[in-house]
Amino acid sequence: MSETLARTPLYALHVELGARLVPFAGWEMPVQYTGIIEEHLAVRRTAGLFDVSHMGEARVRGADAASFLDGIMTNEMSSIRIGTARYTVMCQPDGGCVDDLIVYRLAETEFLICLNAANASKDIAWMRSLVGKAKVEIIDECNDWAQLALQGPLAEQILATLTSLPLATLKRFTFVIGEVAGAAGCIVSRTGYTGSPGFEIYLPSASADKVARALLAAGRPLGLIPTGLGARDSLRLEANYPLYGHEISERISPIQAGLGWTVKFAKSAFVGREALARQAEGGPPSSVILFSLDDRRIARQGAAIFAGEVSVGEVLSGTLSPLLNKPIGTALVAAGYASSADLCVDIRGHRIPLHIATAPFVK
Amino acid sequence: MSNVPADLRYTKDHEWIRLAADGTATIGITDHAQAALGDVTFVDLPKAGKIFAHGDVFGTVESVKAASDLYSPVSCEILEANGALNNAPDLVNREPYTSAWMIRVKVTNPSELAALLDAAGYQAVL
With A28 labelled, which of A8, A218, A269, B99 sits at a CA distance of 20 to 30 A? Predict the structure, then answer.
């Protein structure tokens, strides 16, 4: 079985930078440049630049765009202010997740939606299947946009050298549109997937290479380094951000995943509402926990969770937290065990006690 | 390019073996192996006295990305495991052929040594 992998507009730059490229969601992506731990710590201490151009984009526009989105997303879309973004989940009728997304309101009747790479085609087909009589158009813009994530405490200082956009007044989950490093039409959003401050920049594909090189040149003296998907995963896990296919999926609902805050039962009907309301009221059959281990072994996806000799769940994600210097992870555990003090994880025959965390490892 | 010292023997599983005149051997993983693993976070090694047949799993080396089994390149008895790797698993990335040796063993079936690769033979499988 051979599959042709897609390449982002930064492919040549990745090769030049000595990245290790791996297949990810149909794309040939950099998993690391110098090392996952070093890249992770750069984002926590200075800054890192991620190529996330594999992420998909869809534009939804038309007179009914806001009410259409309200009907297919768990979060409230009609109340998003222009220039603001909102995180949401899109659910199946049974409450399972089609995807988790960030929705940017560009105008009264126009939205740009960021889609997970692995789900982009599925999401667009799903949205189109639900249009019905709504006056709305769903435009696939996956190939039009590149995306860079500039993340870390020095991200603003670095980006400010390349744009006159008002970064200092840009609040979390808001965005501005303008020029970055001479490239027009960039969306600069104060969002991210790392738990450190920073920006996500949507830019026309043709400008990506130029802007990425300009950012690296401006940031290197301050400690900016290119960072890959490996660090992206350990950073998001420290911050307890879900990854589709792990903490949320077609079989794990937002209620189970601890994303109940994105589900707005008070708004009008939306796909999945009844199933999610039943879970929210009666309690879901299982739920996602965040944990750490006092050990060196990493509990990886699929490792069994035990309460005594009873198997009560499995690990969804696991890595070493460079910040804690301990293994951390998430697990799906049966109802009644989500705050148990007596859970263990089986790692290659070793039973390691699991410490359930009540807050993310970074704020 | 990976570093492949000329004075060692190798397996296609990316382990190196340094043979001593007294019938003992020191075993670790190659530069190629450590680079493929990425940041090593844990090395699980057997206690002295344990006995392994050729090809048995004698331990695990774990990186941020994955856990990989370590295969005994020859039948052997463990004389000593490298305790320094408990506190500094990253030595495997920095000095795979020297301070990050993993086990010192008594070779119990010396006839198996003939099947090991020399440096040129190992280079050919990379």
Answer: A218
